[in-house]
Specification:
It is a single chain. The chain has about 80 residues and is α+β, with helices and mostly antiparallel strands. It has one domain: Hypothetical protein rpa1041 (Alpha-Beta Plaits, 2-Layer Sandwich). Helices cover about 35% and strands about 15% of the residues. It has 3 helices and 2 strands.
Length: about 80
Amino acid sequence: MSTQTQWRTLTEVQNPLEADLIKSLLAGAGIDCFIPDRNLGLIYGGAFGFRIQVPAADWSQAKALLAASPLNLEPDQPTQK
């Protein structure tokens, strides 16, 4: 049996501050969060976007939390500029 966590993308944003806000929202609910390639995104000014990933087991809870937040982001839908 593998102890490796499977991560699933919750949403993608273009702004690093928005990514940090979502990460804080999830952390406040006790949901782990990972932003792969965060440093690369910062170097290139968010040109590639920032994927917010959560453990697959927590995805449904994270999706509901994000949908109910005042951020008005739909999970799995990148924000529009």
